[in-house]
Design a protein that fits this description.
This protein has helices spanning about 20-45, 60, 70-90, 105-110, 135-145, 155-165, 205-215, 245-260, and strands spanning about 1-5, 50-55, 95-100, 180, 185, 190, 220-230, 265-270. The protein is an alpha/beta fold. It folds into two domains: about 1-165, NAD(P)-binding Rossmann-like Domain (Rossmann fold, 3-Layer(aba) Sandwich); about 180-280, no CATH class. Bound molecules: flavin mononucleotide. The site of flavin mononucleotide has 7 residues, from strand 7.
């Protein structure tokens, strides 16, 4: 499954736009989508099944004065995807475009001039409602499903019969549950460990960290940022520890909140080894397994 979400959208007047500006936006939004598709095609063909979904934009229906390059690139997504659907459909790979209108996220609010952020553009949006993030996610996940609600054509039926005769196991869906050694995950989305350096000066988990993980509680599994197991293991400023009572209490509050939001969270514990600095441990040299 490939979901293309490149959306580089600089605001720039046509009169100031150079060919290089235009090319950069087309390269990221359109050529990037082509290159990603090209890269995964052999893999999907090999499986005889695949889903490619790309973010289009409803801006292509009316144009946007100060985004000539962006709207042109997004219009290209439609031609690219329709044509790819003809080629790849033969191999059991569907190609679709989701066409949201402007979705007012905090980043869009900060970047876009107020007059562009119209309160309700619903009439020109195919989904007939103004964009909010959950709508996009819902459309994307429906198009990415293994079982789309369409009448299988003869070729699909033949493929299914072929798969059954070969006794191939069905490929699981990203949204299927998973039994992780007794821990039931509601889906197969896992968040990998990511250090955010948002602990306090003395490495205690904070409310900001709690909110960050709670926002991601719908993932099948969260693995926390690396968390040092001793003062000697400390290697990054504002990286949380789990070796003092105040740190354990901070983690307890954080994990309780994630559990209350329906999530599953595991701690990534670490010792930074010799890649630490004496200034972080009162002048004491770090220790590690290698010299
Ligand atoms: C901002 C950031 C912080 C990261 N912090 C950690 C970490 O604390 N522990 C760890 O094992 N990996 C860390 N990683 C690596 C990620 O867990 C992940 O393995 C990496 O992004 C590669 O995954 P990808 O190929 O899906 O991008 C970090 C990555 C990023 C981008």
């Amino acid at each position: 499954m490939l979901i293309n979400v490149a959306g580089y959208f600089p605001i720039q007047s046509y009169d100031e736009m150079t060919a290089a500006d235009f090319r950069k936006v087309v390269d990221i939004n359109l050529t990037g989508t082509f290159l990603m598709t090209e890269a995964v095609t052999p893999l999907l063909r090999g499986r005889g099944w695949g889903r490619i979904v790309t973010m289009g934009s409803a801006s292509v229906f009316g144009g946007v004065a100060d985004q000539v390059h962006y709207v042109a690139a997004k219009a290209g997504i439609f031609g690219l995807s329709r044509s790819l659907a003809r080629v790849l459909g033969r191999d059991g790979i569907t190609v679709n475009v989701v066409t949201p209108d402007l979705t007012v996220t905090p980043a869009v609010k900060a970047k876009m001039p107020a007059e562009i952020i119209e309160p309700d553009q619903a009439p020109r949006v195919p989904a007939r409602r103004a964009g909010r993030r959950p709508h996009r996610c819902g459309l994307l996940s429906r198009l990415a499903r293994r079982r789309l609600h369409h009448r299988p054509d003869r070729q699909c039926r033949r493929r299914k019969a072929h798969a059954m005769s070969n006794k191939e196991a069905p490929i699981p869906d990203l949204f299927d549950g998973y039994d992780l050694h007794g821990l039931a995950l509601p889906n197969r989305v896992a968040m990998s460990a990511m250090t955010r350096t948002r602990a306090t000066e003395v490495d205690v988990p904070t409310a900001l960290m709690r909110d960050y993980y709670v926002q991601r509680a719908s993932a099948g599994l969260i693995v926390t940022e690396c968390t040092q197991v001793s003062d000697q293991g400390h290697g990054i400023i504002r990286c949380p520890g789990i070796h003092r009572d105040d740190q354990v209490a901070g983690w307890r509050e954080l994990t309780d909140a994630v559990h209350a939001a329906g999530g599953r969270i595991y701690s990534q514990i670490w010792h930074c080894g010799r890649v630490g600095h004496p200034d972080m441990r009162g002048g004491e040299l770090p220790v590690g397994p290698s010299p």
